[in-house]
Amino acid sequence: MGEVYGPSHDLFGVFKKPGTPLTPKVEGDVILTEENGAYQCKSKAIPISQVRADHQRAGELIQRGAAAVEKAKSFLDPDDYKYFSEMYAVADVVLKAVVCCSEGAHATQIMLENFDNVPDPEQQFEKAVAGLMSYADAVEKERGADFMSGWTGFSLCHVLRTIAEGYRLIVQGHVPPKAGFIGAVVTY
Prior knowledge:
Layout: E1 3-5, H1 9-13, H2 36-41, H3 48-71, H4 78-112, H5 121-143, H6 156-171, E2 185-187
Antiparallel strand pairs: 1-2
Helix pairs in contact: 3-4, 4-5, 4-6, 5-6
């Protein structure tokens, strides 16, 4: 059929019903390398409100860092100023991408099991997928189609669109929720 980015075992699981273990394994089970950290730490899914609060705090820290660079502009070499300004601008783009992916993962989990009793899970899902696609378009327009394609060969725009497609395929039952890792191409 094609290739998609599958959701990460750890990332996607964060958006299950709060309190659900990210790796529901018991002593004696085989623990895969990618499950080891979550298993050892006994990590559990957290409420979307906590994820959103963490994202908001990260955005505030990025803004604070960017403001500090602006304040120090007259003391910085022009190349250093450009570097630090761009670093915070890219951090902001990446954070917004993570927010879109998080909303999409949560909406996908709600479609699979409406543990938050959302009145219209399909509307929430469609809004989240549209948000991923819209943000990919905005990044492409602002930064170019190959933005952040460096070492993977896949641009951020491509990754966001493919993740949105992956969420849709999960909801449609074509790809199991544990199909693979974000960033790792999975053939289905």
